[in-house]
Amino acid sequence: MPISIKAPMTREEAKKLRAGDSCLISGVIYTARDAAHKRLCELAEQGKELPLDVKDAVIYFVGPTPAKPGQAIGSAGPTTSYRMDAYSPTMIRLGQTGMIGKGKRNDEVIAAMKEHGAVYFGAIGGCGALLSKCIKNSEIVAYEDLGAEAIRRLEVEDFPVIVIIDAEGNNLYETGREAYLNTQK
Amino acid sequence: MRELSAQKITEAVKKLCIEANCHLPQDVKNCIETCRAQETWPQAQEILDRIKENYEIADAQDAPICQDTGMACVFVKVGQEVHIVGDLTEAIHEGVRQGYSEGFLRKSVVRDPLDRVNTKDNTPAMIYYDIVPGDKVEITVAPKGFGSENMSQIKMLKPSDGLQGVKDFILKVVEDAGPNPCPPIVVGVGIGGTVDKAALMAKQALLRPADSESPIPFYADLEKEMLEKINSLGIGPQGFGGKTTALAVNIEVCPTHIAGLPIAVNINCHVTRHQKEVL
Ligand code: SF4
Hints:
Chain A is an alpha/beta fold. Chain A has a single domain (3-183), classed as fumarase (Alpha-Beta Barrel), CATH 3.20.130. Helix content of chain A is 27%, strand content 26%. A 5-stranded mixed barrel of chain A has the order 2-3-4-5-7. In chain A, strand 4, helix 4 (107-116) and strand 5 (119-122) form a beta-alpha-beta unit. Chain A is globular. Chain B has 2 domains: 2-20 and 65-144, no CATH class; 147-276, no CATH class. Helix content of chain B is 39%, strand content 25%. Chain B is built from 8 helices and 10 strands. In chain B, helix 1 runs parallel beside helix 4 (88-102) and helix 2 runs antiparallel to helix 3 (42-61). Chain A binds chain B through residues 35, 62-68, 74-77, 79-80, 82, 102-104, 122, 124-130, 132-133, 146-148, 162, 172-173, 176-181, 183-184, and chain B through 40-41, 43-44, 47, 50-51, 53-55, 57-58, 61, 63-69, 104-108, 116, 118, 120, 147, 150, 178-182, 232, 234-236, 238-243, 269-271. Iron/sulfur cluster (SF4) sits between chains B (66, 68, 145, 147-148, 181-182, 269, 271) and A (77, 125-126).
């Protein structure tokens, strides 16, 4: 049975999740890709206020296709997360508790997740048409000039994800593969 | 000599951009279904079911299969007996421009690799021309996402590295890519030629139907062997474990220099898109 999660998500909730858990996220999440992360981290460095509330935030690494008339959003699946590795430790330090993306993360990100209590979720890459069904509302909150890379506030309902890396550093990319290969021996 | 207006080219490219991004080709669907039937790992089965559900939604609603609607790679075979009235290259860019805006596709191209300002219309397209006999023009549009493009690699092997070197390199590229290119993947391989030719062949290998095999028996066997080897790595759909790491391995070859053995591996994801029209 998938675990239901409310977003924003507290550190305590984040710490309860384990790599491999299937979850359904409902509530408010934000989108950001590398260009937006770069600007956010520059603001943070200068001690300026960020255009979104990072505390307890779940950030989805996605650049959606444009919405057709009558749609909340176009296709919206995850982008590869390692391009955010340079920025995620800062964001986690500032209060972010969840990341949604796909692909490997580096040691600095995992260290920050363990130190502060954050999780890395995976959404299925290449399933943007399906995932967009769980996004009920979308509005640009910053950096409209970045087009697909602008920061959006999304209202999601039962958005399906799997915990890839948990706040203890367990990694489904390692454990899942190993478990499967053990069945092949 | 047959005449063909550039306007017709623009219309075809526009249509192909939209079709390719919203409708997964049947050959890729066939591979996904075959792999689903052979997959034993429950989580992998579940992911392959979602992938199928996704392309069915895209089909039904003319929605982009994936939000990364790619860089438009356009392969054109121009018959030497046809005269194009107008600017052919500009007609192709214009088709991409119209297709990406009218089709609600994502504009993912920056004008310069370092200053990174978005061109806002997904141009320029990456265009490759071939002059062929006849009076037809064949256009293939293959939008290429960069999650998988970024996982591609090229290497100038030594002739002494031989067949083993080729096999090792293909496996290394797939292993390095791991979960990043949205597995299950399609692996395009170009062997021989020059450094640029190998890279181009690797991309052209991705245009070949995923459920086809090389017409050269030796390479057809190598494709089969490499698919089996890749699918025993255990990476699985999305990298969460399972058999289905790759849907297909397509290999293209070409003569090369006595001193060289170039090899390029172009990784594509399960959203391997290509649509063709003959004018
Ligand atoms: S790698 Fe392919 S499926 Fe994954 S996000 Fe890019 S285009 Fe989409």
